[in-house]
Amino acid sequence: MPLADISGYLEVLDSVRGFSYLETARGVLRRGAAGCVSNPREKPGYVKALYVIGAVKIPVGEGCSYTLEELGVYDIGGAPDMVFSSPLDLFTRGKPTPLVRSRLQLPGGVRLWLKLEWYNPFSLSVKDRPAVEIVSRLSRRVEKGSLVGDATSSNFGIALSAVARLYGYKARVYLPGAAEDFGKTLPRLLGAEVIVDPEAPSTVHLLPRVMKDARSGGLVHVNQFYNDANFEAHMRGTAREIFVQSRRGGLRLKGVSGSLGTSGHMSAVAFYLQSVDPGVKAVLVQPAKDASIPGIRRVETGMLWINMLDIDYSLAEVTLEEAVEAMAEVARSDGLIIGPSGGAAVKALAKKAGEGELEPGDYVVVVPDTGFKYVNLVKQLL
Ligand SMILES: Cc1ncc(COP(=O)(O)O)c(/C=N/[C@@H](CS)C(=O)O)c1O
């Protein structure tokens, strides 16, 4: 059978270490096609390369080649009637999240498109994607009823709390004192334990405590900051959707923009789109020195994928005030209330456009969540 279901080979995913398989993935994306392998189980890196670019099929045999479309990479949607058999089915087939042309006018012929990640059903954020990928893989080797947990700025904690229950696990989330109330309260509503450390200046400062609790037993640390399933979830999900939506929507994609917490989603989006077209620019936003924008950090605070992978990007600094200003600009131009990290990314793109660094064309900004969660934050700044 020349085209086999890739789902029959997924047990090999966990055996592939490191990032060398990404060179294969990059090559397939650049060629737009993949060749056959006689026995996929002997080529786990090849299986993983096709999996993370979103293939549904894997070509088995000798001397054949199939296009991305034939491999199912373009199958990003699945529910024309929006009827779902379960909450997880809603997450999986209620895709892609929308890609919306903004009416906001940026300088230099830069056309702004918003990728609305609040359409993910559990945390109303981009973080559902790594939560589902991490927990679904974990469920192949961790017994039901176990306690899973991680440090979080809010969204991942909600997503993990929701998804853990769907897979029969208990959840514990650790948050810094400065986290928004929604991040401390909603995991409790979802039945998770919540530990808030008022002394922790940021999310990553909680990691030693989480690791200590994991070492002393009783906690499975899912580790969003270093678990490659985070990056891979966004390759197969967020990045692939933008690739296919841009093609089908007739965009002249010239760049992407977004923010960094673990760097999982923007590393994947930049890597994937630059694999297809090396000319695609990546504008990444970071909070200005001493600024604090919920969910995101400065690159120098230490991140895995954005520093490990072959990704070409430029950085722009944004204050919280500028992020909220961009939230208001998008709200008043589009009627859409995006979150502060999405606002920061829009502002970063606008800055680069204003500096004449961007050629005319279409630019996709990933909007990680909705501004509805940040009323207390916004009202202080409006
Ligand atoms: C509102 C918002 N915007 C952007 C990001 C950055 O996304 P990644 O770079 O992680 O893909 C996040 C990440 N938040 C994580 C890690 S800090 C959490 O919720 O625990 C976020 O909550």
From TrEMBL:
<dbReference type="GO" id="GO:0006535">
    <property type="term" value="P:cysteine biosynthetic process from serine"/>
</dbReference>
<dbReference type="Pfam" id="PF00291">
    <property type="entry name" value="PALP"/>
</dbReference>
<dbReference type="GO" id="GO:0004124">
    <property type="term" value="F:cysteine synthase activity"/>
</dbReference>
<feature type="domain" description="Tryptophan synthase beta chain-like PALP">
    <location>
        <begin position="94"/>
        <end position="368"/>
    </location>
</feature>
<dbReference type="InterPro" id="IPR001216">
    <property type="entry name" value="P-phosphate_BS"/>
</dbReference>
<keyword id="KW-0808">Transferase</keyword>
<dbReference type="InterPro" id="IPR036052">
    <property type="entry name" value="TrpB-like_PALP_sf"/>
</dbReference>
<dbReference type="InterPro" id="IPR001926">
    <property type="entry name" value="TrpB-like_PALP"/>
</dbReference>
<dbReference type="InterPro" id="IPR050214">
    <property type="entry name" value="Cys_Synth/Cystath_Beta-Synth"/>
</dbReference>
<protein>
    <submittedName>
        <fullName>Cysteine synthase</fullName>
        <ecNumber>2.5.1.47</ecNumber>
    </submittedName>
</protein>
